[in-house]
Request: fold
Amino acid sequence: MTRLSDYDRHGRVWDLDPASGLLSPAPGGSCHGFVHLPAKGEHAAAALYGAGAGAGTLWLQFGARRWDCAAVSVRQDSLPDGTRRFTVTGAGGGPEFELPYAAADSVPFDPAYDWLDELADDFFLWVADRLATTASRQTLLAHFRAGFPAT
Reply:
């Protein structure tokens, strides 16, 4: 089991079974990544985590499917119809996974809403941003391996 902090509901903690993708509520404790529970139109939980203290792998998981972040690239696009698309591309250059989803609703209009707010509201945008460079992946893996409290 891997203990994860809920990305969208601060203070909630989950145990993830990486083999099945199943989640179960967990008491607090040291977390090693984040999980996003399925939203409307999504069919499985998504997670980004560093596996155990002895492993040096950063994992991206959607349901029972998971990828070593060093072996794939990810991208998040905003589409003309207002939806978004998250894509995992494998070493061969072809998409291995695509998820269309609704953009976060920022109503009521907030003139102070900016890029940081958008990252906080969109797990997949945050993942794409964190996995964009080797340096940011290594920093995130070090943070996840060390563990952190759910807030």
